[in-house]
Amino acid sequence: MDFEGLEEVVAYEGKQLIINMDGPITTNDNAFDLCEHFIHDGARLYAMLSCYDRLVSKGRRNNRSRVGGKMQLALPFLRAYGVNDSKMHEFSRSHIKMMPGAAKTMRFVQELMASFVVSASYEHHVSEVCEQIGFPYENSYCMKLSMDSVQMDDWEAELLKNYAREIVALPPIEIPRDARVPADLSPRDQSTIERLEDIFTKEISDLNAFRLVTEVVAIGADEKAADLLDICKKTGVGLEDTMYVGSDATDVLALQLVSRGGGLSIAFNGSSEAAREAEARIVSDNSVVTSVICEAFYKSGKDAVMSLVDDWSIPHINDSGFVHDYLVRELSRVFPQGLPRVERARMGYLDRRVEGHVASRQNSKGTG
């Protein structure tokens, strides 16, 4: 165990942690990193895919369109540049950017409670991170795919490379802050989006490699909410005894679900969307804060954590009895100049889908 001096801590039954890997555990943007490394001008290509995803394909996915998001759209191009499953594993293994303290935290929390990881990243990256931190991969939820399942002829690879070159040569797209649809863009940027539309919906959609777009399921907000409920079903632990740590827009529904269900929702270095839906937010460059919050939650529940949040100071944490002395000392050691920001977050509007999810979950628990 990494936290020496905690040998007497015992596991508390009936609570669980579900944590987003992307942010609280690692700081990678794995899809971007892969594109930048393997594809010529791959960073620019991924930026264009991201703009397209934000303005077009995200809305179309709600209508079951064949056009996927940026992480799916990147896959045919990666395959064209020779990326297979082995290369994705090897690259991911050697380019993990770990949040300081996260490996210790993840080993520690497993000794307290059932713990699960959710991630929007490719399974290759997630499995390598799990291996590095000693976390069971079977307790992870992520984007499942096999690059090796797609056999690509030379002509198809060259065609996709040509399209990649064309895309990066298109004018950069400038998206105003309040833009939601292509009509909100300048005429030049609308023209760029129209060209991307033609490429993805007409010109490459019949290629063999496009199966990586249509058959791979991206992990978005709906998927993470479904994963959360699946975990609760498997463990038998209710939402009220669940702590969810999220960081971005894909965590919004899960954060709402846990909050509505009486559990603890935390935004760790969260985007505005995540921070708006969490009950508390952490802004920190070290994961020891997560360890402190986790132990308090498992020892004394959500109210104990919120009492720490309301008086986030070493004296109060030390006197509370919710956190082991060693963790208090570790917190002081890591942050000698003052503790990182931990505070209540303003709860956002509860999506109606969440109300339905929670009602269904509570009904099923009540009849079990």
Please provide a written account of the structure:
- The protein is an alpha/beta fold and 368 residues long.
- It folds into two domains: 167 residues, Rossmann fold; 136 residues, AF1437-like domain fold, CATH 1.10.3870.
- Helix content is 52%, strand content 10%.
- It has a seven-stranded mixed sheet with strand order 3-2-1-4-5-6-7, with helices on both faces.
- Strand 4, helix 11 and strand 5 form a beta-alpha-beta unit.
- The protein is elongated.
- The two termini are 37 Å apart.
- 44% of the residues are buried.
Shape: elongated
Main beta sheet: strand number and arrangement?
A: 7 strands, mixed
Low-confidence spans: pLDDT under 50, at least 5 residues? 3-12, 61-66, 347-368
Enumerate the strands of the largest sheet in spatial order, edge to edge or round the barrel.
Answer: 3-2-1-4-5-6-7
Q: Mind telling me the CATH class of the largest domain? A: Alpha Beta
Radius of gyration: 22 Å
Number of strands: 7
Architecture of the largest domain in CATH? 3-Layer(aba) Sandwich
Write the layout of secondary structure elements.
Layout: E1 16-20, H1 30-38, H2 42-61, H3 70-80, H4 85-94, H5 102-112, E2 114-122, H6 123-133, E3 140-143, H7 154-169, H8 187-203, H9 211-214, H10 221-235, E4 242-246, H11 252-260, E5 264-268, H12 272-277, E6 280-283, H13 288-300, H14 302-310, H15 314-320, H16 325-334, E7 341-344, H17 352-366
Parallel strand pairs: 1-2, 1-4, 2-3, 4-5, 5-6
Antiparallel strand pairs: 6-7
Helix pairs in contact: 1-2, 1-3, 2-3, 2-7, 3-7, 4-6, 5-13, 10-11, 11-17, 13-14, 13-16
